[in-house]
Amino acid sequence: MKLKILEKKNSIFNQFIAEIRDEGVQTDSMRFRRNIERIGEIFAYEISKELEYEKKNIVTPLGVSKVSVLKKQPVIAAILRAALPLHTGMLNYFDKAGNAFVSAYRKHRKDGSFIIKIEYLSSPSIENKILIITDPMLATGSSMVLSYEALMQRGKPSHIHIVTAIASTEGVEYVKKHLPENTTIWAGAVDGELTSRGYIVPGLGDAGDLAFGGKK
């Protein structure tokens, strides 16, 4: 299993990571969503380099051009609700991709602990497809693994790409332990600490709340 961390190479990508972390910038929810969307676009471009292509004759007004185009379109899955801007960014580039949505959320107990609940799944067949699962935060990794298991009801993908803006070391290790070898983890940055309540430190806070407002 491969782990690719985009922050390790200097690029404009790091500016977007800086802004989604910055508590001063986070007060603008529209900019937060747009930065997550732009991060998704960059991830899509990087993942596109890993996919299969085929030559196709394209007719122009003056002749024919042979161009390499995607051989197969991926299926992009969003873990609701926080992943919607990230999903949108990837869909801006993979605009012919299939789309899947998984409702996964933390159900908190009175003692401060929580369990992950899956309530909803909408997905086309992913049999022998490239599956991209998006979630802006990979904290404990439980939501990602349970979402993957739910998606397996729709078939067995040829390759899985996990896309997250900020991951924890613990979350990465959990995914490595529970997902198959034909998986690539794409992270913007990986932070070393996870709190007892499952929040990444320094992280950025709650991505869903920052994008869409608080919830009860």
Question: How does this structure look, described?
Answer:
- The chain has 216 residues and is of the alpha/beta class.
- The protein has a single domain, classed as Rossmann fold, CATH 3.40.50.2020.
- It is built from six helices and twelve strands.
- The strands form three sheets. Strands 1, 4, 5, 6, 7, 8, 9 and 10 form an eight-stranded mixed sheet that branches. A two-stranded antiparallel ribbon has the order 2-3.
- The chain is globular.
Which stretches are poorly predicted, pLDDT < 50 over at least 5 residues? none
Give the percentage of residues in beta strands: 35-45%
Please work out how many helical segments DSSP would assign.
Answer: 6
* Proper CATH architecture: 3-Layer(aba) Sandwich
Number of strands: 12
Q: What is the CATH top level name?
A: Alpha Beta
SS-derived structural category: alpha/beta
Order of helices and strands: EHHEEEHEEEEHEHEEEH
Distance separating the two termini: 37 Å
Mean pLDDT: 94
CATH topology: Rossmann fold
> What is the helix fraction of residues, given as a range?
25-40%
Q: Kindly provide the radius of gyration, computed on alpha-carbon positions and rounded to a whole number of angstroms.
A: 18 Å
The biggest beta sheet, please?
8 strands, mixed
Domain count: the total is 1
The 3D shape can be described as: globular
